[in-house]
Predict the structure of Putative HTH-type transcriptional regulator YdfH.
Amino acid sequence: MPTDEHIYQQMRNAIVEHQLIPGTRLPEDKLSDAFGVSRTVTRKVLQRLALERFVTLQANKGAFVTQPTEKESLDVLNTRIMLEPLLIPAIVANWSDAHSHRFRAMIKQENQANANHQHEQAIQLTARFHFELAYLADNAIMANYIEQLCYRSSLIIAAYGSHSSVSCDCDDHAQLISLFEQQDTVAAQDWMVRHLDNIKASIQFEKDASVDVDFQALFAHSTPYAIQ
């Protein structure tokens, strides 16, 4: 039987990857049947996703995938623009050759996803790049917050973004890694601001229509061992 954490991860990934689009209703009974768990377990997961703003709970109506508003979306992106550059000096101070190797490997995965037109996977990979960088600043509280902002950004980009939201030749993540290797803090901060500004500029606010979802089919191959 899948754990609460496994169900949470699978549902969050499905939302971020736009398999469950904003506005989609999330019936407890169908989700419980899909995962083979009780409605109590499903309700607990939905409440956790609601706390993190991936799901909206409506009295007498149930749970829905959150449809970010324009203001909320801009607030999330503007907060990232304010906070992420502040971590750059600490990231530069902690940078090592091992970090260069690790993050360049992540960039290779991003580029491959973009080359294969795997837009949803590219969204997740770019979010991971940013929040894992944040953890190098050795401030767990700030990094945890940025991780949540990155996941919320992924939902926003999946809903309103385009290819340029995650792939821009003038904004390649490899440029940032080179600046870290050169210990160029100021240039890295400038790069980060420009990069996040470009993501914000790529967003076009249009609402998706809710669709019926076959939860059994969507989560049919979901196993606890699939979590990365």
Summary: The longest strand covers residues 55-58. Residues 223-228 have pLDDT under 50 and may be disordered. The CA atoms of residues 115 and 122 lie 10 Å apart. The chain has two domains: 4-67+209-226, 70-202.
